[in-house]
Amino acid sequence: MSAVTEEAASAPATVLAWDLPTRLAKWLLAALVGLAFASKYYGDVGLVWHQWNGLAILVVLVFRLLWGLVGGSTARFSAFLRGPGAALGYGLGLLRGRPAHYLGHNPLGGWMVIALLLVAAAQALTGLFTTDDIIVYAPMTAVASDETIARASALHQQIYPILLGLIALHVVANIAYSALGSDNLIAAMVLGRKPAGRYVDPAPATPGSVALAIACLAVAVLVVFGGIALAGGNPFP
Amino acid sequence: MSRRLAFVVATLSFAAFATTAVVAQSDVAKQREALMKEYGKATKAVGGMLRGATPFDLATVQSTLDLYAKNAKTLPTLFPEGSGESTDALPAIWEKKDEFEALFTKLAADSVAARAAITDEASFKANFPGVIRTCGTCHDSFRKKS
């Protein structure tokens, strides 16, 4: 009894905000998107490295999709996807300097998560059908029509600046929250914890099961590589 | 009457000339597209060797490099002024003609040099990618994206 009291007194009072699989997927996706940029501009001429990058990104995206259904409480889409009214209300509070405090993604942040996932998915999927008409033939070019390939190749170039813009907005917003506001989102996304306090959403977060996370990852690998193979593509660049 | 006839003849011959010019223009676009397609087909085969998906074959690599050098000599002559209409050719080709033609000169020179340098799979993997980087450089600046 006394040991518990001592621990509570000495340790800073924090609560779980995002579970480990959510954070791993988030930082892995960020790293892979960075690597995809590097492998496009500094990689091999056949973009083999870039294609593996894209496949890895697809795996993480499918994992995140599954984890958004069965993962930790703050990772679930049902928990952080809120209507435009809530987003507007939150935005107004933010402008007045009195934002409502959320343990997980706030209503605007939730929409940013969805936007980032969707645009990254569009970029990864069009990448599967992209060719440079020289030496790069992505996994699905073997079975797609010339029109599809031309369209996807153009889209893959057009989506890229949109993705960069979203990432820039996302990074600036998080730096602003963490450095200027009272909510250190970057630390919370790294360490998984936020100071105990009053939050709009239920605190602490309930972590997802690690076994379930591994199962989601296995399903994601199977969906991506199996899906490409079933569609007649070559899943190994 | 004879003046009117002369006018008709002049008009008709101008129309004929204009039609010929348009036909010639689309012909020239078709010709260069055919040469580019030859590049694409040959490069695709070599690309498989570069990735290790198909076995290395020196003769195929050499004939591909010969094709690069041969077509790179013809291609610059197939971009006459005004032949970009409804093709993937960007106006930059004629705005920066020297730069555009220099890329073909480089491709031809690099192909000849690589032809001499490539004797086995290792020298192929070391020398071939550098040759085709010029293709991408040119497409980025002078070819429509979609």
UniProtKB/TrEMBL annotation, chain A:
Gene Ontology molecular function terms on file: electron transfer activity; heme binding
Gene3D superfamilies the UniProt entry points to: Transmembrane di-heme cytochromes, Chain C
GO annotations of cellular component type: plasma membrane
GO biological process: respiratory electron transport chain
Location within or outside the cell: Cell membrane
InterPro entries: Cyt_b561_bac/Ni-Hgenase, Di-haem_cyt_TM, Hydrogenase_cytochrome
A Pfam family matched in the record: Ni_hydr_CYTB
Segments forming domain Cytochrome b561 bacterial/Ni-hydrogenase: 18-191
Membrane topology type: Multi-pass membrane protein
Keywords: Cell membrane, Membrane, Transmembrane, Transmembrane helix
Keyword Transmembrane helix: yes
TM stretches of this protein: 24-43, 49-67, 108-130, 159-180, 210-231
Protein name: Cytochrome b/b6 domain-containing protein
UniProtKB/TrEMBL annotation, chain B:
InterPro entries: Cyt_c/b562, Cyt_c_II, Cyt_c_prime
PTM field: Binds 1 heme group per subunit.
GO biological process, one term: electron transport chain
Keywords on record: Electron transport, Heme, Iron, Metal-binding, Signal, Transport
GO cellular component: periplasmic space
Top-level lineage group: Bacteria
Pfam families named among the record's database cross-references: Cytochrom_C_2
Keyword Membrane attached: no
Signal peptide: 1-18
Recorded GO MF terms: electron transfer activity; heme binding; iron ion binding
Record keyword Signal present: yes
Amino-acid positions noted as binding heme c in the UniProt annotation, renumbered to this chain: C135, C138, H139
Protein name (Swiss-Prot/TrEMBL): Cytochrome c
